[in-house]
Amino acid sequence: MKILVINSGSSSLKYQLIDIENEVVLAKGLCDRIGIDNSLLKHTKKGSDTVILEKELKDHRDAIKEVISTLTDENLGVIKDMSEISAVGHRVVHGGEKFHDSVIIDDDVIKGIKECIELAPLHNPPNIIGIEACRQLIPDVPMVAVFDTAFHQTMPEHAYLYALPYDFYKKYGIRKYGFHGTSHKYVAQRAAAMLNRPLEELKLISCHLGNGASVCAIKYGKSVDTSMGFTPLAGLAMGTRSGSVDPAVVSFLIDKEHLTVQQVNEYLNKKSGVLGISGVSSDFRDLHEAAEKGNKRAKLAIDIFCYRVKKYIAEYSAVTEGIDAVIFTAGIGENNDVVRAKVTEGMQYLGISIDPEKNKIRGKEIDISTPDAKVRTLVIPTNEELAIAKETYKLVSRK
Ligand code: ADP
Q1: Which of 191, 198, 195 is CA-nearest to residue 216?
Q2: Rounded distance, CA 242 to CA 171, Å?
Q3: Is residue 186 part of a domain?
Q4: Distance in Å, CA 210 to ligand 1 centroid
Q5: For the domain that residue 22 is a member of, what is the CATH number?
Q6: Is 10 exposed, middle or buried, given 0-12, 13-18 or 19+ CB atoms closer than 10 A?
Q7: Is 335 close to ligand 1, i.e. is its CB under 6 Å away?
Q8: How many CA atoms lie within 13 A of 273 on its CB side?
Q9: Catalytic: 101?
Q10: Which of 335, 380, 383 to mutate to test the pocket of ligand 1 (most atoms within 8 A of CB)?
Q11: Residue 399: pLDDT band by 50, 70, 90 thresholds?
């Protein structure tokens, strides 16, 4: 069965066509600069070089049209026609309290996703545009929505509620939702497979460390707490996002720097994190290079990043009441041995101890713990597209 996975952003649309039985990516690509000049489609067919095609992509409908025509193209394509695609899985950022799991898309689901726009004004609208464009162009193919927030809907009230007047929760839905759910759930399932134990028995701390970064406490297969909050701004220091700061800083800055609320938001989301601290870059490769050349602020940014991850692991060990495994995933978690070493340093008291040689291996599933460690430390490459395809497959085959 072939499943098309769509991740639709405001001016870009990523796609993968996955042969789900064999877990093989047949083709993948990106439509970029949708609705802007010089729009293009970047396409890679399995076993072939990436091609970049200049295309006029006025909107997301144009983008989906081009994806379909490229996938069915005689030379670049991998299928004869669209009837070979059994289902489409759409990534949707925010499912609010409405969606606890992935769902087959119908009119009511679209209405529900629209109701969550208020919670994710930048993300849900392009997700909906992608879904509606697909429904117009390939109306007979079943579609599934897979939400970043859904996995965290199992958090208990005492974990997701902020200590604000309760009315704000009732009136506006202000609470912790959490993100990266598809990734945390996927790596938790992979961890269970690696440990050869049922997920329902395991206490896991999953560290998704990419440009956006979050930690999730997973007890017996369920998310019980996570570091991102009402929005993806909370928690860890990230590439350009501040993570948690004292909320009083916002009004202080508005006052001192005569900033608008939008400007403060811009600072917190785009100019903070390791970029803000270092003044060098949001990318860890650049930070390490600068730190090695003696740049103190680059070193400080790495230290602050690692310190927060370490604190979350300890904090969540209290939430899960013990840990079977710590998981490192996403760009930094999968590739950055320096960060993994720094985060786990001195955590023997919790049973965490890693082997420096094994830690050097990057980008593949591996247990990097020392043989005597009570807690396994696992590196697991995430694969959100495959996870979306699997969820989609599960739902459409149930029909
Ligand atoms: P996004 O949240 O944008 O999907 P990624 O998961 O791609 O982010 O992570 C991006 C981060 O991963 C960057 O800071 C980058 O430096 C880091 N990264 C990626 N590959 C490597 C590598 N080989 N060594 C060190 N860091 C890496």
Answers
A1: 191
A2: 27
A3: no
A4: 5
A5: 3.30.420.40
A6: middle
A7: yes
A8: 28
A9: no
A10: 335
A11: low
Q: Is 174 in the pocket of ligand 1 (CB under 6 A)?
A: no
Residue-wise pLDDT for 63-116, tens only, equals: 999 999 999 999 999 999 889 999 999 999 999 999 999 999 999 999 999 999
The per-residue pLDDT for range 209-236, each reduced to its tens digit, is 999 999 999 999 999 999 999 999 999 9
Q: Which of 32, 62, 148, 367 is catalytic?
A: 148
In a domain, 184, yes or no: no
Residue 134: partners with Cβ closer than 8 Å, 6 or more residues away: 6, 64, 88, 90, 141, 143
Q: Cα torsion for 285, 287, 289, 293, to the nearest 10°?
A: 180
Q: How much distance in Å is there from the Cα of 311 to the middle of ligand 1? A: 21
332 pocket-lining for ligand 1 (C-beta < 6 Å)? yes
**Does the structure show a pLDDT above 80 at 128?**
yes
In which band, very low, low, confident or very high, does the pLDDT at 333 lie, cut at 50, 70 and 90?
A: very high
Ligand 1 in reach of 337 Cβ (< 6 A):
no
Count CA atoms within 13 Å of residue 17 on its CB side: 24
Residues 209, 134 share a domain? no
Atom of ligand 1 nearest to the CA of 288: 25
Q: How many domains does the chain have?
A: 2
- Domain identity same for 22 and 132: yes
Q: Domain of residue 55: give its range.
A: 2-147
* Pair (134, 233) in one structural domain: no
C-alpha 31 – ligand 1 centre gap (Å)? 21
Do 263 and 372 share a domain, yes or no?
yes
Compute the distance between CA of residue 120 and CA of residue 127 in angstroms, rounded to an integer.
Answer: 10
Average pLDDT of every residue of the chain: 95
Measured from the CA of 382, which atom of ligand 1 is nearest?
6
Does the C-beta of 210 come closer than 6 Å to ligand 1?
A: yes
